[in-house]
Amino acid sequence: MVKVAPSLLAADFRVMGAEIERVAAAGADYLHFDVMDGAFVPEISFGSGILKWAAKGPLPVDAHLMIERPEAQVANFAKAGAKIITIHAEAGGHLHRTLSLIREHGCLAGLALNPATTPDCLRYLLPSLDLVLVMTVNPGYGGQKMIPECLDKIAEIRSMLDRAGSKAMLEVDGGANTVTAAEMMRHGADVIVAGSALFGADDAKGFIDSLRASWRQLHPEENA
Ligand code: DX5
Ligand code: ZN
User: Fold this and answer.
1) How many domains does one find in the chain?
2) Catalytic residue among 29, 62, 173, 190
């Protein structure tokens, strides 16, 4: 079954705790926590100090680090309670070393690819990965439209993972609504990040249920 990860960036920060409870009650699987440093991406969002509080809620935290030098932050985010830590391929450094460091801290290790990045960089990293994150918008802001060219990349990575026998999750982030999320799933995604469409929906449960219904249509074998 598809997993749904609401992006906290689109929540009402005045009542952050209640917002997390609301999406958890609606059936979300993870809390997607977008960390921006004003250097790798133009905006600054929040850091490990806030994550520590978010992690006290009911959802495991999926930390998406859109930051330079992520290796310097892994310990902070792990200690703060992140369950998944995802770094960007384009952030550079020694990716294999940083991914290993994430696992050494007891977290699941993810690698994110910007829209312009090809999947080749995953080839020798597959055994080090618990998650691949395909960005379907340029990172830095919530509320953008999905870039449709990225759908083929999802399919390419799905076959790469399947061929290698990898059990890594394939998460997609950016511009997900009930229509685009169905396309993401059809191309092989099994974790959908949704910010503005989910937090902005009057009925968050209806939104998540609709994603699950699309998954069931695509995977009738799981209903048996
Ligand atoms: C973009 C972030 C996304 C974003 C998703 O830089 O990584 O997680 O919050 O927001 P929506 O779903 O509104 O595109
Ligand atoms: Zn994100």
Assistant:
1) 1
2) 173
